[in-house]
Amino acid sequence: MTPAAPDMTILAVLAPFAAAAIAPFAVRILKHNAAWPLAIVPFLIFVHFAGYLAGVSAGETYTIARDWVPQYNVSLSFFIDGLSTLFALLISGIGTFIILYAGGYLKGHPQQGRFFSFLFLFMGAMLGLVTADNLITLFIFWELTSITSFLLIGFDHLRAASRRAALQALLVTGGGGLALLAGFLLIIHATGQTEMSAVLTSGDTLRNSALYLPIFLLVLGGAFTKSAQFPFHFWLPNAMEAPTPVSAFLHSATMVKAGVYLLMRVHPVLGGTELWTTVLPVFGGITLLVGTILAVRQTDLKLMLAYTTVASLGLLVMLTGTSSDRALEGAVLYLFAHSLFKGALFMVAGTIDHEAGTRDVTKLGGLRKAMPITFAAAALAGLSMAGLPPFIGFIAKEVLYYGTWGLPQGALALTIVAVIGNALMLVIAAGVAVKPFFGPETHTPKHAHEGPVLLWAGPVVLSLAGLAAALMANTTGALFIGPMLSSLKGVQTTVELVLIPPYISAPLILSIITVALGVVLFLQLDRLRGLIATILATIGWGPDRGFDQVVAAIVRVSAALTRVLQGGKMQTYMMLTFAMTGAALLLPQVLTGSFPAVPAWPEFRFYEWAVILIAVMGLVAVLLAKTRLTAIISLGIQGFAVATLFMLFGAPDLSFTQFMIETLSVVVLALVMTRLNLSPRDHRPLGSKIVTGVIAASVGAGFALTLMAITQQPFDARLSEFFAEFSRPIAHGRNIVNVIIVDYRGFDTLGEIAVVVLTGLAVLGLIRVKTKSDKAEPAQTTTRAAKAAQKTVEAR
């Protein structure tokens, strides 16, 4: 179905890119207050996509398409359903408060305008990613998120840590993006469709395809790297080198959930298989445990939250991998809840750092009186993250426990993993929302006080939204969760959420166990942190260090390969060039066995045989030449023989050009050889001569077979007829060959002339250098003779 105003949707998706161009000028005029008018852009985008809620709740989907690169089937197309609508609302809604927060957080920063530009570019890339319908367009937006996150993470580019974190994020997510591109190309090949909406209607085509395994692995490569799944989890905590507005946006609603979005998007056509329900839960569960354990070790508020984001992404992947209806509902609901409480808590951590001067939780305490509004927002968001009522996080935890407990296979293992992970989440939630605000007041680097409205507006609204979503659970399920779950399952689904469980059930008991375990662990937080730190120190190695080792190994291998391939010897360069040429020509034919048929031997006249005999004699002369100068002159015989054949077969223009080129080449090369001090003989060993001989033979055979294959194809005369018809009326030339060279191939001919001119200049330079050295040689000889005579006199 097409919406009434498709152009408005395209405008909404592309609006952040326009805001990125305006932002620096707005900051120059309004300073940090530019955040207020700039925040109108994502707010209007939010309002626009909110208009789709009624339709997608009723099961409607919308497609909007405009031609972009039609010759490659690439269109600027967008697909709006429950999944893309919820993501677009989260990106634009949370993005509104991120823009406001950035205005207060970077107040007075000389590069605040540039920061706003990067933030809007990032927002636009994510909006395009979650709404794109064309697979190639989706990939373009996917990689744009990697590029813009690189700019944001490395915003403070004068710090080595920021540069390293930005490069690490770009390499990991960019590499996964290339894998995803290959997966998309295989999907297009397997289904014959370039639009995601069409692929989703292909049923079991991909599951039954012989390409399912490579498609699955390549799509997982893109999703796992983008959403920081083990063992690619290390880049996400390091991305905390970015300013806090970036961290809050990155972790709550945007890039890190792009991988989860992709897995949810392709679930109707790739999910449900044994491979899917094995790999995703295993890696998701490992990521959940690794993320929460590493989070407990941290004392930096942002790092504590960052590692819990890794854990949350693992939980989402684990639930999505089960392909169970109730587990999928839990995944959707937890994604929604996580976006609200994690965005709020990250902004709280940034506000504490901004107003108190530190993020170290061991150096904070008693801030609830100095920062009451921030404390209230932290408490509300922390309760939701801990999974306590009456917050949306509690409902999400109940539903996901329903999903894991009711699985036909692996229910106990996945439930235990979920309970341990959620208990440790409670520990971190209490560490962020309780530790800094309770206890005795501590001396902080800055006098702690409440921040301006730009800093606390976002945390307050998002934390209250988590409360409101739970209190209006039925509406939340109907408007947001149900449509998104329908997209995951591929069929229309209704969701009924309740805040208070109607009866005591396994999920409620599991929630009580989770809270009890979390409280016990929180009371032993310092001891637990020390234990984990000791274990990690004993292990010593980790994926983060492994990344550095891999990069260092790549650099060493590249340097060694460069020394071999770019060693400064022209002979090596030419040999490698011809070897690759021969391989490119021969290998496809050898591997496929598609050799051309041997043509019938033509009947030559006696003078044509004479020309061929001259060419063969020239070839023998080249091979037997004793000096390079003789070989060059003999090589000219080949060119003159070919030029003669052109003339005999009715191509006088081409023949004349060949005669001129051969004459010029022989004269120039002979002139250079006589001026340079080169060894007259070829002193290479026999093995080297054999290698170069084989390469030369392969190139010659490759060209011969290729030309034979081409000439055996049916002749397509359309181009010839075009030139014959239009050379006179368009180019005003009677000689078709000249018209082709001068008019139709004018730029190509200009390039060839430029090459010849540059070659002539290079030759002239070589001659002049040799001439100067010749002139200097007698003087040098005289000087040496004089010194020798002087030494003889002194000796006497």
From TrEMBL:
Region (Disordered): 777-796
Domain NADH-Ubiquinone oxidoreductase (complex I) chain 5 N-terminal: start-end pairs: 71-116
Domain of life per record: Bacteria
Database matches in Pfam families: MbhD (PF13244), MbhE (PF20501), Proton_antipo_M (PF00361), Proton_antipo_N (PF00662)
Compartments reported by the entry: Cell membrane; Membrane
Domain NADH:quinone oxidoreductase/Mrp antiporter transmembrane: 132-415
The name this protein goes by in its record: Monovalent cation/H+ antiporter subunit A
Organism: Pannonibacter tanglangensis
